[in-house]
Specification:
This protein has about 375 residues and is mostly helical. It has one domain: ABC transporter involved in vitamin B12 uptake, BtuC (Orthogonal Bundle). The protein contains 18 helices and four strands. It has helices at about 10-15, 20-35, 40, 45-70, 80-95, 100-125, 130-150, 150-155, 195-215, 220-230, 230-235, 240-265, 270-275, 280-290, 295-325, 330-335, 340-355, 360-365; strands at about 160, 185, 190, 270. The strands form two sheets. It has a two-stranded antiparallel sheet. Strands 2-3 form a two-stranded antiparallel ribbon.
Length: about 375
């Protein structure tokens, strides 16, 4: 008589979920927890700005990953959709005043404009080869950048525009008060409108990210991957490739516009440099490549690495230069003015050691037997 034993739950999980994938999910979960408690873990103003920017850019980069990672669409118009959401919200708040109706109306207007442009660009251009489509999107983004700079009566021109947000998000608003009527502090952090603004951005970003994860896990996500791997085969099977590519292009545009709405509400300022610049598009591309295309969770890792490097690498280099002041050459190499050099070297090393991005490489290694 042969006695067989069923594998334990831990063994089953180990067999079905590769170690690399588990590590990536663990890191992403840790980042999520840090963002959830960011106002209490990092209470200074600069750190909260970085945390809010990370939340918004995770949504923006993940929506771009829907295009380039899951469908193979290379677009340079993603910042255009981001800017439409931001400018729509900003113009409504500027003209209508700091109310929720202005955010709703301006946000809806920006999203609708992004959707209409995405339909037009997608329907007219997605039939052509990838390089020509990329050039069309680049031209559209350039036109939008020029319009935002030239139509100064509407957009504020190169200087952009400032505005007020709902009173709930004002730093003077008391969310919780103590017995004396003063703003209550939890772990040394004042429970004021700034906390409300941060959690509005965080929870909205989380909802949009989960929505994109649901899209990827749906049958539509499988079709998109099939189109990416072999467009002609997918069409031969019976899938309408142009329809699916246009649909995902529109979905990504809408999500990018919603990210722009969040950015406008948090920043209380919108200008070409923070909403439409080509530099933002370059950052998005770098974040996708660093994190790993076609993984979604890679957007979380890529955004965090790039954002921390952009905001804190200069400080780290300055501290290193002071610590090595007595040594030859090193203080000059660690001069904060050379931070872009070190950022470039960091990117080269990441691409060399993680050719499919950090998440993509680790998840790929975990599945190899």
């Amino acid at each position: 008589m042969v006695v067989t034993t069923s594998p334990s739950l831990a063994q089953t999980a180990h067999r079905h979920i590769p170690a690399g994938r588990l590590a990536v999910y663990a890191v992403a979960g840790l980042i999520g927890l840090c963002l959830l408690f960011a106002p209490f873990l990092f209470p200074d103003v600069r750190a909260q700005e970085v945390a809010a920017r990370i939340c918004v850019f995770i949504v923006l980069v993940a929506s771009y990953d829907l295009l380039i990672g899951y469908t193979g669409i290379v677009s340079f118009a993603h910042t255009m959709f981001f800017g439409l959401g931001a400018y729509g919200t900003a113009m409504a708040l500027k003209t209508m005043g700091p109310g929720w109706d202005a955010i709703l109306l301006g946000g809806v207007a920006g999203v609708l404009c992004a959707l209409v442009l995405a339909v037009l660009i997608g329907a007219l251009s997605l039939r052509v080869k990838a390089i020509f489509f990329a050039m069309v999107t680049l031209a559209a983004a350039s036109v939008m950048m020029v319009l935002a700079s030239q139509l100064s009566d509407l957009t504020g021109g190169e200087d952009g525009m400032t505005y007020q947000v709902p009173k709930l998000f004002s730093a003077a608003t008391k969310l919780l008060t103590d017995a004396d009527g003063k703003t209550l502090r939890l772990f040394g952090v004042a429970m004021n409108g700034k906390i409300a603004a941060y959690y509005f951005v965080f929870l909205s970003s989380l909802a949009l990210f989960l929505l994109m994860l649901r899209i990827v896990a749906s049958p539509m996500g499988t079709v998109l991957e099939a189109i990416r791997e072999n467009e002609m085969r997918a069409e031969a099977i019976g899938y309408r490739v142009v329809f699916y590519r246009t649909a995902i292009f529109c979905i990504a545009a809408v999500v990018a516009a919603l990210a722009g709405v969040l950015r406008a509400v948090w920043l209380k300022y919108v200008g070409p440099d923070v909403a439409l610049s080509f530099g933002i598009m370059i950052d998005i591309l770098l974040m996708v490549v660093i994190g790993g295309m076609g993984t979604m969770v890679g957007a979380v890792i890529g955004v965090v690495i790039m954002s921390l490097a952009q905001f804190y690498l200069k400080d780290l280099m300055e501290a290193g230069a002071e610590a090595t002041a007595g040594l030859p050459l090193l203080p000059d190499l660690l001069n904060p003015d050379r931070w872009l050099l070190w950022l470039g070297l960091l990117f080269i090393l990441l691409v060399y050691f993680f050719p499919a991005g950090i998440a993509g490489t680790l998840m790929g290694k975990g599945t190899r037997k």
